[in-house]
Structure formats: C-alpha cells, structure tokens
Design brief:
By secondary structure, this protein is mainly alpha-helical. It is 80% helix and 0% strand. It folds into 3 domains: 1-87, Alpha Horseshoe (Serine Threonine Protein Phosphatase 5, Tetratricopeptide repeat), CATH 1.25.40; 92-195, Alpha Horseshoe (Serine Threonine Protein Phosphatase 5, Tetratricopeptide repeat); 208-294, Serine Threonine Protein Phosphatase 5, Tetratricopeptide repeat.
C-alpha cells in the first residue's frame, strides 16, 4: 500500500508539472498571436529551461517557435541558435531553411548557407520560394567553385531567371571551367548581344576564331609544302576563303579587347594575325605595344 502511494505521488507530481509546462506553452502561443513577442519568448524560454532541467527532450517545434519570437524582436543571434537547435532536433520546414540560409549569408558562412539551401532544394521542390532558393544555391556553388554541382542544378533553374544576363554570365563561367566549348560558343554570342563590352565573352570569341583559323592555316600550309602540286595549291586557295574571314573576326575582337583593356597578350595576337596576313609593318606595330602596357 505504501509503495502504491509513492508511485501515485510521483504520477500526480509528473502530471502537475506537465500541465504547468503545457500551460506555459499555450500562454506563449496566445502572446505570440497577439503580437506580444517579448512575453511569448519569456514563457517559451522558461518552458525549455524547465524541460531541460528535468533531463527531458525538448520538442524541436518549440525551439522553432522560440526562435520566431526572438526574430520578431530582432534578436537574430538568439533566433539563429534556436533555429539550429530545432534543425538538430529534426524539425523541418521550408521557412526554417529559408531563414537559416539568409542568416548564414548575413554572417558570411557559405558552408552552412549551402547546407540550408540544399535542404530546401531536396525536401521542398514545390516550395513557394524554390525559384529564388535555386538561384541562390547556384550562386553559392559558383562562389565555392563547385562547377559540377552548378551544372547539375542548372536544369532546375526557372526559365525566366536563365535569361537574365548575370545568370547567363555565371553559366558561361561554369561551362568554361568544365571545358564545354560548344555551350560557351552559344553563350558568348548571347551575352555580347546584351553586353557588347563583356570582356569574358569577347575574349572567348577572339581566341575561338584565332585558333580555328590558325589551325587550318598551319594544316594547309604544311600539306602544300609537302606536296607542291596544282591540286594541293587549289585546296590551299579554297582554305583561304575560310581562314581569312576568321582571322579578321579574331583581329576585330582582339582590337576591341585592347581598347577596353590594353593587355600585352591582346597586342601579341593582333600582331600574330597580321604576321599570318603578311602585313609585316602592322604586325611590328602591335608587337611593339606588347611591352608598353599590361
């Protein structure tokens, strides 16, 4: 009988404590809904403290609600701590990852920002903010030089966002790093239509046309020197119709690059083009510029 009373006493005490805890949580909820965030924060923090003192697990959703109350009071550091505890406790919602990603961006923690963005992307592909979150995730992959991840994410980027110049420039860089020349050829032309003075796209086209022309020039000249026949000479003349237009395109791109940013390497390639064209005086003029600016 005595043992029964002791057990009953513990049970009653537990029920009283549980009711007290539930009451604090409910009071905090009411305060929050009424816009009294200070009161809500106080009651929920008190609840968390009491639960932890008893060695019990705090429900992760309570951590999240407490973080929201702190955020409403502009206590961002405290809010982030509660959100992190909610996340560690298994709480998941699109709002949680949205908030955490923004907070990590504010404190310049790229690794944790990527983790929050990836969680949103994987768990809430139909979330209201999925388009902007995907764009930001793509940007963080760029910042961290994770080119393959950026490439893998690209199909999930909203079509309208893909047409924006800044994102096209980023996509161009990804393909350049991954040596996807065919895609870079298309992107360079698209970028130049919107931004004619874009250095990266201008340089891409300048080198593209130079090596296209130069490789064919070397190939055909080597073939002709090896076999100086009428037929081979005819092939050489036919090749000129492809070589010279590409050299001229390359020259024009390099000249524009030099006007925008007078680097020695641009002058060097202009000189090489004129050399191929047997315009020695012009070639020398540009070769002399190589040591002047860089």
């Amino acid at each position: 009988m005595r043992i029964y009373r002791i057990v009953l006493g513990f049970f009653v005490l537990f029920m009283v404590q549980s009711c007290t805890t539930t009451k604090l949580v409910d009071e905090g909820e009411t305060a929050y809904q009424e816009g009294n965030y200070e009161s809500a924060l106080t009651k929920w923090e008190q609840t968390i403290k009491e639960i932890e003192q008893k060695g019990r697990m705090v429900d992760s959703s309570l951590y999240y609600k407490t973080g929201m109350a702190a955020l409403k009071l502009n206590k961002k550091g405290k809010a982030r701590q509660y959100f992190e505890w909610a996340y560690d406790g298994g709480y998941s919602s699109p709002e949680l990852y949205l908030l955490l990603s923004g907070m990590y961006k504010d404190i310049d923690n790229l690794t944790l920002e990527i983790e929050a963005l990836e969680n949103y992307h994987k768990k809430y592909p139909d979330g209201k903010k999925i388009d902007s979150m995907n764009v930001r995730l793509f940007e963080t992959y760029m910042e961290s030089k994770q080119w393959n991840k950026a490439k893998g994410l690209w199909p999930d980027i909203d079509g309208e966002a893909k047409s924006e110049l800044e994102l096209q420039k980023a996509w161009f860089k990804v393909n350049k790093e991954l040596e996807n020349d065919e895609q870079c050829d298309k992107l360079a032309d698209q970028i130049l239509k919107k931004e004619p003075d874009n250095l990266a796209a201008l340089e891409w086209n300048a080198f593209k046309y130079f090596w296209k022309a130069d490789d064919l020039y070397v190939k055909e000249m080597k073939a002709y020197k090896k076999n100086r026949t009428t037929e081979q000479y005819k092939k050489l003349l036919e090749a000129w119709d492809k070589i010279w237009p590409d050299f001229r395109k390359s020259r024009d791109y390099f000249k524009k690059l030099y006007d925008l940013n007078p680097k020695s390497k641009y002058a060097k390639y202009i000189g090489r083009i004129y050399k191929r064209m047997d315009k020695e005086q012009k070639a020398e003029y540009w070769f002399n510029k190589m040591d002047r600016e860089d």
